[in-house]
Each structure stands twice: as C-alpha cells, then as structure tokens.
Amino acid sequence: MKNTAVYPGSFDPPTNGHLDVIARASRLFPRLIVAVTDNQNKTPTHTLEERLLMLRGITKNIPGVSVEIFSGLLVNYLKKKNARVIIRGLRAVSDFEYEFQLALMNRKLSPSIETVFLMPDEKYVYLSSSMVNEVARLGGSVDCFVPPLVRAQVIKKCRHSNP
Ligand code: ADP
Fold it and tell me: What is the domain-level CATH number for residue 103?
C-alpha cells in the first residue's frame, strides 16, 4: 500500500493500545502521520504540547512515523498531506457505532479517502486514555497500560490533581 496514512486522535495520553495500532499501521504504510487533535468537545488532561512530546518520544524508533498537531476538518488535513487513508483503532463493540458514523461522514465529505480499522492486541481492548488518567489520579499503578515515558508524565500531572 503505497500511501500515506493519518492516525488522528486525542491521545490524552497515548496508551499501549494506541502504540499497538501505530506499530500495526506502520507495517502497512510507508508513511504514517499521528495527528494530535485539539478536540473542542473534550477538556484534555494533558496539553497539546505534552501529548505531542509523549507521542514523539514513544514512536521515535518506529520507521516512517511522524507526529503533528492538527486542527480543522480531518479530510482537508489529509488532502494537504497528500494522504488517502485514515487509521482508527477498534476496541470493543462500544467503539463501533461512533467510528462507523465518523467513517461514513468522512467518506461523504471526501469519497477518495478510506478509513482503515485496526484491532489492537486483545490485552489492550479494554484500555482507554480516560481510565489511565483516572487510575493515576486515584493512586493506582499504570505501568501495564502506558510506556514508561508516558507513565512519568501521567503521574506528574494526575497525582497533583488527587483530591
Ligand atoms: P478520539 O478522541 O479521536 O477518540 P482517542 O485518542 O481516544 O481519540 O482515540 C484515537 C483512536 O484510537 C480511536 O479510533 C480509538 O478508538 C482508538 N483507540 C483508543 N484506545 C485504543 C486501544 N486501547 N486500542 C486500540 N485502539 C484504541
């Protein structure tokens, strides 16, 4: 597949599940842009800059992967980057409806762009960024859920907000 792919998401923070999807996508596409979005509907725990630095740190040894900040309409961003593939991760059934809607909306906006869904290793199907932040905030260990670099940032950020 001689294409550039874009993996968009909030990555608040990036987890082992995201990293698993990135590794799988990088084996399918020669160039993969991980695009960190500033989703206005969510109040992030980690700033855009922090998420960018975490993602750059944990992907630095994966060939063909770059990390950028993106805002605006996703399909316009892909056109600007000359990319035709959107990568999304699918965990359990709960992801399906929203992801299905998003993929069809993007297809309507730009029929030449395809969304490719990748399933993570089964040990990550229950893993979400919000749970990682919550476990850290309550003093639990997040060692199994995020790479060490992310763990340090999550502990620094979330432990301080412990009530
Ligand atoms: P968004 O705010 O766009 O949903 P996320 O960072 O939560 O951003 O997720 C980005 C993408 O990665 C989504 O397609 C989501 O389903 C997927 N994803 C999130 N966590 C995991 C995981 N543990 N395993 C596989 N895919 C995941």
Answer: 3.40.50.620
The answer to whether residue 94 is domain-embedded is: yes
Catalytic residue (choose from 88, 129, 137, 151): 129
Q: Which residues contact 126 (CB under 8 A, 6 or more apart)?
A: 91, 92
In a domain, 157, yes or no: no
Q: Give, in degrees to the nearest 5, the angle at Cα 29 between 26 and 33.
A: 70
13: preceding bond cis by omega (within 30 degrees): yes
Domain that holds residue 104: 4-125
Q: What is the pTM of this model?
A: 0.94
The predicted-structure confidence for 38-82, as pLDDT tens digits, reads as follows 876 778 999 999 999 999 999 999 999 999 999 999 999 999 999
Q: How far is residue 84's CA from residue 151's CA, in Å, rounded to a whole number?
A: 33
- Give the span between the Cα atoms of 33 and 55, in whole angstroms: 11
129 is a catalytic site residue: yes
Task: Name the CA radius of gyration of the chain, rounded.
Answer: 15
149 within some domain? no
Q: Which two tokens stand for residue 127?
A: 């893993």
56 is catalytic: no
Quick check: is 134 in a domain? no
Question: How far does the centroid of ligand 1 lie from the alpha carbon of residue 129, in Å?
Answer: 8
Asked if residue 75 has its Cβ within 6 Å of ligand 1, the reply is no
